[in-house]
Amino acid sequence: MQGINQISTSALFNKKETKNVSSEKSDFGKVLKETLDEVNDLQKEGQKAMSDLATGQVKDLHQAAIAIDKAELSMKMMLEVRNKAINAYKEILRTQI
Q1: CA 49-14-69 angle, 5° bins
Q2: Helices (H), 1-97
């Protein structure tokens, strides 16, 4: 399983503010893939920082700690997004027509 990159919420908000929603069709799958790629990159950076700490090759302890925290927070956020999507799907299944 590949790692997951950081989700850049500020970038997502900036994109939404500049785009005209009615004229632009948003592809959910594309946005999701880009976000997963970002979280994956952050996970890789966090893994590299941890391995550098373990081997004593760390250049800046503060930056290594930040990279590890970014990886952890992005993973937690992605898991919460997944949980919300699963709950929404279950709610749709329970809806009676």
Answers
A1: 20
A2: 9-18, 28-55, 61-94
User: How many angstroms separate the Cα of 97 from the Cα of each of 19, 86, 92, 93, 94?
Assistant: 35, 20, 10, 10, 10
Of 12-26, 40-54, 79-93, the range with the lowest mean pLDDT is 12-26
Which pLDDT tens digit goes with each residue over 14-37?
554 445 544 456 788 898 899 999
* C-alpha span between 97 and 40 (Å, rounded): 39
Looking from the CA of 84 toward its CB, the CA atoms found within 13 Å total 6
Q: Please check whether residue 74 is in contact with residue 39, taking contact to mean a CB–CB distance below 8 angstroms.
A: yes
Q: Report the percentage of the chain scoring pLDDT > 70.
A: 74
Sign of the CA dihedral with 48 first, then 49, 51, and 56 last: positive
- The token duo for 29 is 């799958």
Within 8 A by CB and 6+ apart from 52, the residues are 58, 59, 64
DSSP for residue 5: B
